[in-house]
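Model: Ready when you are.
Researcher: Fold this.
Model:
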Amino acid sequence: MTWGWEGVEAMESSLDALAQQARDRARIAGSLPTYIPHLAQVDRQAFAAVWWPRDRTQRIWSTGAIHRPVPLMSVIKPFALAYLLHLGEGDRLRQWLGARPSKLPYHSLEQLRADGGTPRNSCLNSGAIALCAQLPGRGAVDRGDRFAHWLETQGGADVTVHLDHDTLASVQATPNSRNRAIAQTLAAAGHCPDPTAAIATYNRICCLAADAIALAHLGLQWIAPRRPFPQTADEAFLRTTLAMGGLYEDSPRFFQATGWYAKSGVSGLILAAHPHHGAIAVWSPPLDGHGHSLAGRWFLDQAIALMAP
């Protein structure tokens, strides 16, 4: 969507006001993820937001710590799917990997077992761990490096991705028994030949970091990829996955109400994209009870309402 000059000025002024209100919310509500000690030490008042319009002739709106790299955590999950789709794995993945919603939490072992060891979608931990077992490379380090290079290639000059070693060390110091059980269940179903390597790869790519500017640019790849997918079905599979799983249990309702694709992570990041409006990246560390950024989700909802026709 193209905005006239006065429309752009009004939109940016409104976004500035929403950003301040979001900061105020983060001061008094939400909690930091104590199960990852390094993330629990982040300043809860930190904030960044970027709107990168789909129309490249429009200027980018931004506020806050937009150049501070933040670990992507679960926001990385749909990009792992896109990576394998770009490598021509679409037909094989669609034979076993779902793009269906789940009414249970993102780390549910019960859901995976009820589905016979086949993940409902790749935004769940089970689906992402299964994808990590498929990434090309020899071991977690090589897989992670290749994936990071692909992300930078997809995003172009505006995207720099690096490994957040401190967050990775924190994740590794507090092993996740549920994720290990998920990997073993996937292995029993034939979707994870090496559970240990899959978990190591999963932990590593979740700790890749990028700033809000880079993340918003990567979000544009969901709606207007610089390099086309091998098949039309690949792009549809990615978008359906985001629509059904990006915000976990709330995903179908959110997408039906807004038409935006979105993915959140426990570092406080949320990335959202719309075919007409572009991409929004927002970062605010305190989380709500579902693991989404509390202030970030509020800001996103209000910004989307502003852009609605």
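Researcher: Now this one.
Model:
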Amino acid sequence: MLVPRVGSQRWGGTPVRLHGDAPKRGTATRRSGARRYAEASRVAGGPFWSHAGHVTGTWERLRPVLARLRDDPAVPLRTWPDLDHGNGGHPPFSIWLAAWAVDAAARLHQEFGPDVDLRVGFLHYPLAGPADLGPDHLRPAEAPRTVCPSWIVAAPSEPVAVASGHDLRSVLVMRNDGSETAHLRTNGTVTATIVDPVTRRTVGGFAGMQVLPMVIVELPPGGTSRVPLLVGTASLDPRLGFAVPPGQWAFTAELDLSPGGPCQLPPHPLTILP
């Protein structure tokens, strides 16, 4: 992960002439330092040295905890502060966990409280309210209203079943029953969105980072192509919890076709397991 850093500032003094003497350095520096100290203390709500000590102490306790989570083969972390350089920044430290990693989030919250800003899947931890959703750029895009043309047939290569809170990589088999070549624009995969099979309301999807290359899949007339399919089960509805719960659901996806433009894949059955 690339972590933005705050650029260092040089506290340099301006030469100050006093009573006609030769220029003397340091007076402006000391005054500038005093002003900075006073401002930092005001923001911190107390002596700056005390706040800085708290930051350092918190990071020294948090860093080994995050290192263990980073090295966990189950991969509970999505993003986290840089553990190899610097002091991790300033609290609250932003930590993003997988939708299934609620227990890890609970432990972090219990030990570090307001010094960590936690997100589990799409939602903040702990939940602050019914509208406590993640940033717009992390949510599944609203599916377009246009249904994909009937001459594009797409279905998973096998029944799709995935554990609640986890992600699944499968294959979408696409067939062109039309008379002209079509092209599917992707980032190398088709990302599914989970919907309620009755109301068609979007309830979840994949919460994570993806690389964004332009990968174009050619669909010749009468031809079949296999496209990677990514299904995530992070919940967008706080009433469901941090992960879409076990049960019978459905998934759809947005396909960017040429000719035709963006269109919605018809819903397909999805089983979410305990």
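Researcher: Key takeaway?
Model: The radius of gyration is 26 Å.
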